[in-house]
Amino acid sequence: MGIGGALVFRRKIGAMKTKLLIAAGLAAMMSTPALAQQACLRVGQIYNWKVLDNETLVVEDLTHNKFRLGLMGYCPNLAFKQKVGFKSIGGTQLSCLTPGDQVVIHDRVTGGPCPIRTIETYTPEMEKADKALEAQKHS
Q1: Which of the two residues, 121 and 11, has the higher pLDDT score?
Q2: How far apart are the first and last CA of the chain?
Q3: Which of 47, 97, 103, 109 makes the best surface tag, with the fewest CB within 10 Å?
């Protein structure tokens, strides 16, 4: 094989490697549906929120998608707050809230923020179950 033939052979090998890397990357993305369906509540798109208890909030974004935020432990007097803030480690309005970010409340007694433990899409089934539980508490 001459020099020209060797160059063509190397190009073909390089092209094959590139195709294999692309295929491997696509296969990895398809095999991890949790990443593709991860809930993304953007800090700058928060529209409304509701307290379920002192450890759980339901937050609605501007497109009316709902998310349930589980907090790390008890967040005192959360149900009585008229204002809460959300602080993301990402630091921009486009950042998605992630575990470890904070729900910020201003309380003279307990002070500080309440770290977020979990964020999940709040489905209609979850909402129905929460409403049934709330009705059961009041009956």
Answers
A1: 121
A2: 88
A3: 109
Chain segment 52-62, per-residue pLDDT in tens: 998 999 999 99
Residue 95 in this model has a pLDDT that exceeds 70: yes
| Total Cβ atoms within 10 A of residue 68 | 19
Q: CA 113 → CA 59, 74, 86, 95, distances in Å?
A: 17, 11, 9, 18
Domain spans, the chain: 3-36, 43-137
Do 103 and 85 touch, CB atoms closer than 8 A?
yes
Look at residue 5 and tell me whether its pLDDT is greater than 70: no
Burial of 51 by CB count in 10 Å (0-12 exposed, 13-18 middle, 19+ buried)? middle
Which amino acid would we find at residue 71? L
pLDDT in tens, 6-19: 544 555 555 555 55
Greatest alpha-carbon pair distance for the chain in Å reads 89
Is 45 exposed, middle or buried, given 0-12, 13-18 or 19+ CB atoms closer than 10 A? middle
Tokens at 93, concatenated: 């309005």
Amino acid letter, 114: C
Name the residue type at position 88: S
